[in-house]
Amino acid sequence: MLYPINTKTRRVQSLNGVWRFKQGSGDPQVALDNNEVMVVPTSFNDVLVDKEKRSYIGDSWYETDCVVPKVGDQEEWVLRFGSVTHHATVYVNGILLGEHRGGFTPFELVVPARFYQEESIRLTVCVNNELNNRTLPVGNLMEEVQEDGSIRKRMLENFDFYNYAGIHRNVHLFTRPKNHIRDIVITSQLSDDLSEASVEVMVETVEAVDTVRIQIFDEEKQEVAELENGRVTLKQPRLWEVLDAYLYTARVELWADGQLLDTYTEPFGIRSVTVKDGQFFINHKPFYFKGFGKHEDTYINGRGLNEAANLMDLNLLKAIGANSFRTSHYPYSEEMMRLADRMGIVVIDEVPAVGLFQQFSAALDLMGENKERQNTWEVMQTKAAHEQVIDELIKRDKNHPSVVMWVVANEPASHETGARAYFKPLIERMRDSDPQRRPVTLVNIMVATPDKDEVMDLVDVISLNRYYGWYVHHGDLAKAEQGLSAELKQWQDLYPDKPILVTEYGADTLPGLQSMWDIPYTESYQIDYYEMNHRVFDTVPNLVGEQVWNFADFETNVMLIRVKGNHKGLFSRNREPKQVVREFKKRWTAIPNYHYKSK
Ligand code: BDP
Fold this sequence. Notes:
By secondary structure, this protein is an alpha+beta fold.
């Protein structure tokens, strides 16, 4: 899906701002009064301040008035939402326009022409934040009878982050020609010696046109090539390199009867990604991931778009010597993806498939022997939602040079019967629908050890979340070291040709707490914990990277093991460094992006 930009044939106007707002039942036929307001975009939760409203589960109504300026009869107005979490129903003047399920991907709705004549239109969005075993992420919805007999919905997240909701990303109204560029797909093949790239640009239009003109421009806005039949071979291309990004632009024009119908410019990078012999190659060189699992999570905005925080995070990421992050546990904003492209930061792109584990508990006490048998794959009805998020993510992010791998799910019950049947078609779908055929991974949970896991042979990279020294052997780093070392060796022996990536490891840490001994939650323990992990990582030949859990502390639901959120960040929630940041900086600036572990 194309990002909304102004071009000679498209005009974008923002609908961000202060909207009318109401929680509870609503009637789109009747305008909301002005008693309560909400900012778009943001999570509604924290800014509402009131405790009940913050944790409200159900429908929230958003409304604004806007003017739809006149357009030519060959043009249309489109409403575009960057994301609405988790379910949106959109009305214009009380008339249903459409809906979208899924809280992390954009959607568009064409505004019918009859509204273009109106002085102003009333735009109403009903936002629902319920999650269940048919949605992604997975949540457990409950109803509680209150003292007065009324029913209040409650949501127990089946995952370890706060269920922030609202109109989370930009809302735009834009014009485009009726016969327009629907999509642009850019792929490139690099020669073995990197001296040539054959670039292919495929353009999808609504109807056939006389001419589709495609030109490529460099960063100085100089034309580099004009494509014939959508293809060109570029000599000595400047590559998109890790932390040294170079972005070309493809300008597409549709022409009919000598008239320019539509034009759009799509930035892209030339780089290759391959996996072979237990290594992960970018631009034909073995790459080492240094970085983070993150969250879209800031004070005040919650999960709402915060572009300043995005830039600060990526600058901090660079400052500490990292080169990558994973969009745990959902697709991040398009603005963040464009920023990563621009800054040369490598991204592992994840769908919101989290919570696919019956009765998931962040405490990882799922290994308890006395627990009832879990039957995740009988309980979960998420197949349709999963297919949808895969399709929407790849449609949205396929052209981003920063994206080097897709994640089909985070910590599913891949050791339970039914996991293989569930994941095989989804992994194939992900691989096959990507025009660049990037590697696909699944992030494995600690209990799905090599002897129990049923799916890791299906993916290209073995991604592991491992908490030796935290959830296992808590406070005993010597035992933790043995456990981690033994398990990584097992994976290496089982899949000698697959790279291993540690996608999560971490220890909750409260800044300022110190100890002479191995006492969890102290800054000294965090330092020792990571030192132990790194010692082990460096002995595993196929281990191609380390992504810390988490970049920054983040908000979670209230739980016994959460002290006002999850504190595994290397940075606090307001992005101040913990003591361990200095240690990371030393390690990561010493580890090169390439050839760290070349065999
Ligand atoms: C893993 C999850 C992540 C949690 C983390 C933790 O992937 O979402 O926040 O562990 O417990 O289970 O800190």
